[in-house]
Amino acid sequence: MGTVDRLTHDQWSRMVAINLMGPIHVIETFVPAMVAAGRGGHLVNVSSAAGLVALPWHAAYSASKYGLRGLSEVLRFDLARHRIGVSVVVPGAVRTPLVNTVEIVGVDRDDPQVKRWVDRFTGHAISPERAAEKILAGVAKNRYLIYTSPDIRALYAFKRLAWWPYSVAMRQVNAIFTRAMRPGPSQR
Q1: Of the options 1.10.1740.10, 3.40.50.720, 3.40.50.2300, 3.40.190.10, the CATH number for the domain spanning 4-183
Q2: 129-148, pLDDT tens digit by residue?
């Protein structure tokens, strides 16, 4: 993650390889056998809140996660005739070590404002077990979008129903991250 001008081609490629091509490899491996078996089933892809809303500085990540959501939507219709359901999980904060390992290119993670945003994000994180319960409940109801927390559902509704305030809020978040940006090579 980071500003577009600081992301390298390798960073873009890695993000797409993991977040979009990874699930595609799973689909290529398992879905043909599921169709051939004729017993139905369910495919669950894990996207992200960044696959629903355009979080600042998440261009590569959002591209991969929006792509996975689009793929899942197509498969939901394509596989319905085979009685194969398709869900896409759009988790918010889940209490795992992953949050602390995410690199945001060009952002000083030690900046007090960035730390506050990360703490706010992790402060309302749910346990992996709770996320799993939400996913299983969503699959049992054949839901297309499975939210693990109500804040992401609310944020997505806010985006769709109140575009102008949403865009103002996203610009404000972007400004906070921009203030925390380390100088680039040309700015030193």
Answers
A1: 3.40.50.720
A2: 999 999 999 999 999 999 99
